[in-house]
Write a structure and sequence with these properties.
Strand content: 15-25%
Shape: elongated
CATH topology of the largest domain: D-Maltodextrin-Binding Protein, domain 2
Number of strands: 10
Structural class: alpha/beta
Number of helices: 11
Radius of gyration: 21 Å
Order of helices and strands: HEHEHEHEEHEHHEHEHEEHH
CATH superfamily of the largest domain: Periplasmic binding protein-like II
Distance between the termini: 60 Å
Strand order of the largest sheet: 2-1-3-10-4
Largest sheet: 5 strands, mixed
Length: 259
């Protein structure tokens, strides 16, 4: 009799573990959200006893994957146009909500021969003096923060001088790693990552003016077929506790009217 009790208990624990995995939806998130969203997910877990599985990468790549049927239940994009296109193709429940606007920084690693400034004068002098051999940004072809970096560099007349020197990260988080590791002589990446643990200590950065690039309007949306936990997390991301964490990582929160 005792054997059957232990067997029943074992089967119950195994089924509970499987159920927990089933109930933990896959969330696709732009890589600029890595530290902020991990903090929010920790709070969500503590408050609700629910789990989510976070994946971070470039918004453009997730856009393609979701369009091809990848089993993500919630998409947090760094470019709202990807959300709109997914909705137009019938992949999402609606057009989602604007959750934040992002910013970019110019970063110079420790020991750099130039100083980061808002109009990139120090970078220009370093380029003129051949002091910059490698410079990191996210790939503009599919990463919104890479496009913003390209726009800023073009506006200040530095894009052509950097050709042949660019090191393209698969996403903005990888670009930040390249810039902070010392393997490049600088880079442009998300403000939210510059505020994250560790990166700020690897060099100095400056917040770039918003007029140097198109706004990084970041939108999230439920994918069709999203389950209860994904819906709960989606709602939680719009609550004061989550919004406070977004603010701590340098995101500009949208006014209610802009949703």
């Amino acid at each position: 009799m005792r054997f059957y009790k232990y067997l029943f208990l074992l089967l119950f624990l195994m089924s509970s573990g499987v159920q927990a995995q089933v109930d933990a939806p896959a969330i696709a998130a732009a890589s600029d959200l890595k530290f902020a969203l991990e903090d929010i997910a920790t709070r969500f877990r503590a408050d609700t006893r629910r789990e989510v599985r976070l994946s971070f990468g470039s918004s453009g790549n997730y856009f393609r994957q979701i369009g091809q049927g990848a089993p993500f239940q919630l998409f947090l994009s760094a470019d709202e146009d990807f959300v709109f296109k997914l909705h137009d193709s019938g992949r999402t429940e609606d057009r989602g909500v604007l959750y934040a606007t992002g910013r970019i920084v110019l970063f110079a690693p420790k020991g750099s021969s130039w100083t980061a400034d808002a109009r990139m004068g120090g970078l220009k002098q370093a380029l003129d003096g051949n002091a910059v051999r490698r410079f990191a940004i996210a790939n503009p072809e599919h990463a919104p923060y890479g496009r913003a970096a390209e726009q800023a560099l073009r506006k200040l007349g530095l894009w052509d001088a950097l050709q042949g020197k660019l090191v393209l990260g698969e996403n903005v988080s990888q670009a930040a790693q390249f810039a902070g590791s010392g393997s490049t002589q600088g880079g442009i990446f998300a403000y939210s990552l510059a505020l994250a643990p560790g990166i700020a200590q690897q060099g100095q950065y400056v917040l770039l003016p918003e007029d140097l690039h198109a706004p990084l309007r970041q939108r999230m949306v439920l994918v069709k077929g999203a389950g209860e936990t994904a819906r709960a997390f989606y709602a939680y991301l719009q609550q004061p506790a989550a919004r406070k964490i977004f603010t701590q990582y340098g995101f500009v929160l949208p006014a209610e009217a802009n949703k």
